[in-house]
Amino acid sequence: MKQNILNNVSFVSIPFLFVVLAPPLSNYKFYGQLSFGDILIFLFCLSLIFNFKTTVIGFNVVVAAVVISIVSLFFVYDVGLHAGFYRTIFYYILFIILITQKDLRLRSFFRIYTFFAILFSISIIFQWFIYVAFGISIPLQLSAGFYEPDTLKVIDHVYRSGGWFKEPSYFVLYVTPLLFFLLEEKRFLSYFVISIAALLSTSSLFFFIFILSIINVMIRNKIYFLAFLFVFSTVFSIVLFFLEDLVGWIFIRRVVDIFQNGGTLQDRLLSSLDIVYLSKDFFSNNSIYLFFVGGGLEGAAWYSSFSSILAALGWAGVLLIVLSFFRLGFIFGFIFLAFMLTTHIFSGVYSIFIALAFMGINSYRSPPFSCG
Fold it and tell me: What is the pLDDT of residues 177-194, one digit of tens each?
């Protein structure tokens, strides 16, 4: 019987290495709007499609995604297509193909993922230590052509860095699945190292991911949850006590700022309401699409992936992908929904990377080690 290439350990490491390295390389230009991260995901896409294995329902879901994309293309084509439209379509369909994939062997993926996540975490800790000890800021982003500059900076005497990523929130996006995985696997040292790096980055997103990872464990094992919560809270309290002036207060302040008037949450959700108000049809239309690419009423609105999918593919596209999220389970489906509402996750490589990681966690829970 012909074996799926992705199930063969001698082949699997290379495609998965592409996926693991795609997020940190997604800020570097390859050609035009294509990043090095996009190219790596495209190469992974080839291995995935050539070895596609799914159920009848999964196949029908993929067909539905393609049909929705083609119909939407027909409705908005006459007004001229923005480059972001093609990116949305590509990552939308690829996500659906991946999420409906059956019998993926992901042990090799997690070995590679864990190695690089810990490496990136240690790098942030090292950056912070060098700055605090010697007052020297060492940028880790490459000097090659990039889309957005490194956000490495000092805020109120606090060193804020995303390490190899363009900003702290992208680092936390990267390690989010691994935090769940390590906690379930009781690999506390690795969990602690990554958590410290996320805390030092001052990304407010880490606060919410940390809470959800605890809830995820609590649902599965309450005694284990209580013991872990006591130990981890004690350790973190000690860390915050010694680093209060450097990390603790600004981290807490950034979390609070999200919910205040004019905060990040408001900026990222309110602009989407304009798209929701205009989207009265099942599919997209050229007026909604033009409003979206024109930056909304003020011409410079910040739009999340939810807005881009709604503007490009209509409610049909949104409904299909939201239902697909919960194939990953309630907690992971909720996280994906939150990311879609508040980030650009479906305009780039992170959607594929995080989906593959969550699928891997679910496969650990359901021996044999497969996902489908």
Answer: 999 999 888 888 899 899
